[in-house]
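Input record (one chain):
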Amino acid sequence: MQKFSIFMTLTLVSLSSVYAQQKALTYPTTAKGTVSDKYFETTVADPYRWLEDDNSKETAEWVAAENAVTDDYLKSIAFRPALKSRLEKIWNYPKLGVPFKKGDKYFFFKNDGLQNQSVLFEQKGLDGEPDILLDPNTLSTDGTIALADVGISKDGKYLAYAISRGGSDWNEIVVMDIKSKTMLTDSIHWVKFSGISWYKNGFYYSAYDAPADGQALSGSNQFHKIYYHAVGTKQTDDKLIFEDKEHPLRSFGAYLTEDEEFLLVSESESTNGNALYAKKTSEMDKPFEKIANGFDFEYNVIDHIGNVLFITTTEKAPLKKLITIDFVSPAKENWKTIIPESDRVLQSVDMVGDRLIVEYLENANTKAYFFDYQGKMIKEMKLPALGTVSGGSGEIGENIAFYSFTSFTFPTTIYKYDLTTDESTVYTASTVDFNPENYVTEQLFFNSKDGTKIPMFLVYKKGVERTGNNPLILYGYGGFNISLTPSFGVSRLPFLEQGGIYVTVNLRGGGEYGEEWHQAGTKLKKQNVFDDFIGAAEFLIKEKYTNPSKLAILGGSNGGLLVGACMTQRPDLFKVAIPIVGVMDMLRYQNFTIGWAWAGDYGRSDDNAEMFNYLFGYSPLHNIKEGTQYPATMAITADHDDRVVPAHTFKFMAELQSKHKGNNPVIVRIETQAGHGAGKPTSKSIEESADMYSFIMYNLGMNPKF
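The corresponding structure, as predicted from the sequence alone:
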């Protein structure tokens, strides 16, 4: 069912080596303004405020000047073309998505290898001949128009799909008649953080009012609304279903049970916790029934049997449990627990056939089980290795389910599970130019600064020894209840092939050990996340996996904040830092687009003096010190990122270039016609990976041969 949520062989020539290692770069001069803000008793200068204007000529000129420096530096890395060629070769393998059924057809996505965007196929039954339904590559010549979401009507008659242009979170929804493959006149604009939930001859979606001129990519998003659109009508005729005029900073999403008997609405004011509303579609004239209050806990409807809704929740269960609520008598005293909280994180529940497929997270690995509807465990699902299960699809009354499995050295593989035989078989698998038998994955644990036990995964080539001199990339996230679990990443393979060690650390702030683990890395406890990451680096150095001159750190979005905070707190500990689309200005993040929704994790600088001082104490932008040698840094952002606006990175890098001492390069790579990462075309992904890994490997002193 649709669920709503808010809410990636050349030898170095001597001249090139001297250029990068001994000659300091000359950076563009960035003008400083006189803007300042007063927070309680503290005045904070913001000299680069002008870079927040993404429409100004001055900002465009600054971007061009910075990209010129970056392009020149990257061109000086002699092995970069060979690395890019290697990436293109290993990237070129078929990638398939999990099939899902509508009507008598199955639908799935497939990318032949180097296609910029994956193609949507349809086929009659499991043995039918696949036929292209929608090829997003025809929507633009450079692949920068991507599908953000698809929704197929229950009868399989219509396809509605959301288009994202240039990586923006803003979407346009259009409609296709599936049988004739003709586009209808429907066009829905200013859609954001929305699903497409079909009901009869139309669908529910979430949208904002049109932004003011010039504010589309940076203006604050307020007054989210849910609408119903009937096929063949104009957007101006769409029916308003749900809104809140008193609370502009809330988000709403609609979804239906598989049989379309219940319409559900989720209401949230941050990225964690929600209120839940429901009504029967046979009683659409009645108001919604509030099933659960917000916003301290999560409530997600899995499906229903009769009037009984099956719901996963964190209420009185930080590791999550499965309950049922009778829609006829929804009072809390009537709630029933079906699968109680255990000592592991309940990650997901699906209702397939006559049973529940239940996935748990155990030390950041997936364990899957079958339960009956009364909550009795039937058996464990055997998985091919330690790794991650995701994308399950199946329905009540159906005997076939699909799921995907992946691990660090296990490319994503689609499995078909037959409930009549209780057998799981490979449905589709891809052949990659990579031998997993040549690599090792191990999970280690270390104690953070306060004694908390933290897990990490290490991946490296067999034969790599702990000499204390190995190039190593340390990757983390640590926020928003997001769990980092084993997954296959083709872009990191050349680094591993050349003897590098890739480490993923499961920091507090994530969801690996439930809501308490998440909360231990939020607001006035955010420093725990940075301490965990720094502790991971120190552990790896102590255990002779690497040393500070061979250590790179990498993270994106909230992980970009992680890299920015750690490189400013411990510049001596890392040789290379790669903050990608990072949240760098912790005093003003809430002023842009959907930034206000992150306050549940971060707090706000205008909350109170204590919260301001805490944010000011670690905000990467505000903690760059004059005359300090910082790691070789390549910040990465994009001009159409309207999730974490590029001004975060612009201001951070302007300040870093102004105060940094030494010959380590500190450059910024600013992608055009790209956003926060979703929907990025393959060609741009390969270019970015080639640039990023060239920068890392070169500055770690590697001499790769491809």
